[in-house]
Each structure stands twice: as C-alpha cells, then as structure tokens.
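Minutes, structural biology subgroup

Action item carried over from last meeting: produce the structure token record for 2OG-Fe(II) oxygenase (Anabaenopsis circularis NIES-21). EB confirmed the sequence was re-checked against the source entry. Recorded below for completeness.
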Amino acid sequence: MLKIPIIDLAIFRKSDIKSQQAIAKEIYDACHKIGFMYLRNSGISKDLIAQVFSHSKSLFNLSLAAKQKLAWKNELSNIGYVGIERERLDPNQPGDLKEAFNFNKAELLTLQPPANEPEIFVFYQACTELANKILQAFALALELPEYFFTIRHNQQNHTLRLLHYPPLQTPPKPGQVRAGEHSDYGSITLLFQDNVGGLEVQTTAGEWIAAPTIPDTVIVNTGDLMQRWTNDVFCSTKHRVMIPHDQQLERSRYSIAFFCHPNDDTEIACLETCQKERAPIYPPILAGEYLLSRLQATY
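Output recorded by EB:
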C-alpha cells in the first residue's frame, strides 16, 4: 500500500542546486503520486506550535454564547467561529462533528478578539514563510522561475484555522464523521495535529490510509487550484477525519490548518510545462472566484 513520504526540508535550504533538485524531485513525486507528504525541519519551532495549540484550547473552552458572538458570517470574509455541524464538507452526509475558528491576516494584524494573542500572528507569518519555501520547491520541480508561485501568493490571502473535534456524548447520525470526505480548495495546506488521530487519506487506487501524527513533522497536501494549475500533475487528494472506535472517542481532538491561497486576481491556467503529455484539462479561472464557489457549496 502506498505510504505518505517523509521529506527533510533542511536539505532544500542548502545553497547547492543538486541538493535542492533532489528534494524538489521527492516533493514532485509525493504531490504526483498521493498529494500528501510529511515535512521534517519545517523551520517552525515546537514551542510556538505548542503555544498556538494552548491558545486554541482556551478559545474552544469559551461558552457557546461567547463563541457565537464571534460567529462566521459569510463566504466573502470567511472568518470567525464555525459551530458544530455548521459545515458539511461532504454534501451528501450530515454536518461535521467539529467546530473551528478562522482567521485571516487582517484580523490577526489588528489583534482583535479572539485573535488577541501575538503568538497567533507570529505563527501565521511562520506558516507563510514555510508555504513560500514549498512553493519555491514546486517551481523548481515544475521547471518554472524560482518565484513563479510566491509572487502570485504575495498578498497573503491565506486562512489560519483552529479546529476542535469534541468527545462524542451521543451516537453520530448515519454517515456522520468528524470531517467529511473532501479535497482542499487552494494551493497547499499545512496541517498540525495532536496525537488523537483519525485523519485518513485516499490513495489514487481508492484505498483509505491513516495519516497519524509523526513527531516534529508538518503534513502538507496540495489543493484543487494547484491540481488545476498543474493539469493533474499534482493531485488534490480526498481526505477525512473519522470517529475513533476506541477510548479516543472520549477525548477532544485538536488540529491547526493553514490554507495557502493565491492572490484573488491570479488566473489559474494550465502551466506550459504541464502540457507535455496532455492538453489542458480545466478552463482558466480566477483564484478568488474558485475559492468563493467552493465555500458557498460547503456552508
């Protein structure tokens, strides 16, 4: 069965081109074959990640009334609190058994509640730097100019999402899970998760495999816009969070997702270097329009 590879990003940071090309090839293979990878030496400190998880827990421990005052309002802003079952990632199933807080850069810069912890903004910036490094590796792997992708993400139109999957007090509805089967919408996603588990990834053969926490790594996956950009050379892989069938059922699960999106006015059209083996599959689309359409279908 196909495994999710573990890739050492420290080697890519070396100045010699041979080291960079070797890692870019590993990243290319991961994105092409499964769309997921674990990255070691991400450059984000363990202490900072722990601080954000701690702040996340304190936010979700607020009363429901307090959280509802910060409620997510619409797809255009896509910020605020999302209650349990509010989101339905798989449109054919009941709402997801999770709650979330979405943040964008503007909200973090003003440090308005609930984003009034400076560590969250520092973390957002650290995730942005890591995403840019991955995008540089993508450019090298796809025979593009080094900053082809990063300049198309320079408005930092990214979303930081804190997630909480509460313990189950009552049996779920038929077909209900913690996060329904879905692919992500943007370029790439960075995922930090605790050790409760439940994340599963679908291989190209249609098998579901576990993506457990591996200490000192970040999970990275490619999203829909990167799949469109690369003409299916990189795949946007379906994944889900299942309900455990052991004592983990009684525990909260926490994760942090950083959704990296291109600038809204970026045209996502098939790259010339990805047309060697097949004609363009998808018509061009603006990144902002695509994101809005997917959010409208989800809520």
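Discussion: Residues 118-141 form the longest helix (24 residues).
Next step: EB to file the record with the rest of the batch.
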